[in-house]
């Protein structure tokens, strides 16, 4: 299984970016997908997650600004992260993740995910 993330870049504070992550190698029927981020010198944290039942989780720091969604069209699984009103503290490498299987609620811990993308850098300038 491979997860290919895209959409990162440089944006000014207050701007928007949309991250995408497409899974290949297998199709997941009932799983969680998520976005984590890791800023320099900090631990990796869960930004947002979505389950197969569309249950979502957001970190407090991004609530109201970020929206996670997924597209489970035939033979594909893609997760998106729409990021609005970006702040300099959102600067980080963003990683997408997918679980092999999951409950109706979105998994929030790293150990709940089996597959990881390569990361895409988001830089927000002040």
Q: How much of the sequence is in beta strands?
A: over 45%
Tally of DSSP helical segments: 0
Distance between the amino and carboxyl termini? 37 Å
Shape: globular
Overall helicity = under 10%
Structural class: mainly beta
What string gives the helices and strands in order? EEEEEEEEEEE
Write the layout of secondary structure elements.
Layout lengths: L1 E5 L2 E4 L4 E8 L8 E6 L6 E6 L5 E3 L7 E6 L5 E7 L8 E7 L16 E2 L3 E6 L1
Parallel strand pairs: 2-11
Antiparallel strand pairs: 1-3, 3-8, 4-5, 4-9, 5-6, 7-8, 9-10, 9-11
Overview of this structure, please?
- The structure is a single chain.
- This protein has strands spanning 2-6, 9-12, 17-24, 33-38, 45-50, 56-58, 66-71, 77-83, 92-98, 115-116, 120-125.
- It is mainly β and 126 residues long.
- The strands form 2 sheets. Strands 2, 4, 5, 6, 9, 10 and 11 form a 7-stranded mixed β-sheet that branches.
- The model has no long low-confidence stretch (mean pLDDT 95).
